Amino acid sequence: MAHQVRAVVARGKGAPVSLETIVVPDPGPGEALVKVEACGVCHTDLHYREGGISDDFPFLLGHEAAGTVEAVGEGVTDVAPGDFVILNWRAVCGQCRACLRGRPWYCFDTHNAKQRMTLLDGSELTPALGIGAFAEKTLVAAGQCTKVDRAASAAAAGLLGCGVMAGIGAAINTGGVGRGDSVAVIGCGGVGDAAVVGARLAGAAKIIAVDVDDRKLVTAKKMGATHTVNSRDADAVEAIRELTGGFGADVVIEAVGRPETYRQAFYARDLAGTVVLVGVPTPEMKLELPLLDVFGRGGALKSSWYGDCLPSRDFPVLVDLHLQGRLDLDAFVTETIALDEVEKAFERMRDGDVLRSVVIL
Description:
Blueprint: E1 3-10, E2 18-24, E3 31-40, H1 43-49, E4 59-60, E5 64-72, E6 84-87, H2 97-100, E7 118-119, E8 126-127, E9 137-141, E10 145-147, H3 154-158, H4 163-174, E11 182-186, H5 190-202, E12 206-211, H6 214-223, E13 227-230, H7 236-243, E14 249-254, H8 259-268, E15 269-277, H9 291-297, E16 300-303, H10 311-323, E17 335-337, H11 342-350, E18 357-360
Parallel strand pairs: 4-8, 11-12, 11-14, 12-13, 14-15, 15-16, 17-18
Antiparallel strand pairs: 1-2, 1-4, 2-7, 3-5, 3-9, 3-18, 5-6, 6-10
Helix pairs in contact: 4-5, 7-8
């Protein structure tokens, strides 16, 4: 039978979100019904509300979540009712050319639940990133559920579902940060701070945090940055070079997603260094670089989508590190809020007042 639950819905471009009753079907083949326990307020949700992702309104927002599997459909074997899971938006297929080449984090055919959740009038909802977790219950593909240790709090574990994983993965998986490396992170919001944490976990010797907001630089220092640069007061490229013996950093992670900060990252890396773009640009943005500089500097220019993570591999490891006291996921939680406070959380996000607001259900 279908379930009627409360959820946060974006009905139109730029309009404030509303708390509404939606209808969630029982899981069909390959699907799982999840009772959501916590969901982070991510900038991507605001992008959906602003029409920056698509115009498939109404949207069921929320995607950075953890909860308990309540029921599963036919053929589901990897998770079972009662499992504590982190939700992910990259349920790999196992059959595409990327999966068959042993690179499932690049899967070209990720999937979501086939059934649609609806409003009470039958209007179909588009779940954010195929999840829709600002809801008491949500329906996802079973492959979007990754079982982890229940000892972790839902508020902390759920952040691995998007932003924290994106940042940590940008450093470790995409950037290949190693022991003794120098790393610069441009943009110290939630993803950038997670990249700082990832660089620290990987053993980087020098981690330079760059931002225009001193409040964010203070937080980045607490997360593990060894040096900070306010790029309103100093040239970021020159400052990074000065801090790395005049050479530039081995790995520069751009966590803003703007052409001007990407150029900073490009010129702030050492010869044969690596640039990782994890900040999300908007469709109209263009980048212009002298091709000779791209050729002459060597190295690698990479983009990192979801931190090149494989949830079944990465989520349990990171949760274990958290439980061992080696990865402080709680440090990313600025505040916990109720389901009807998401719109206010968007305002605080825009003002730069929070690292993460987390809805507790």
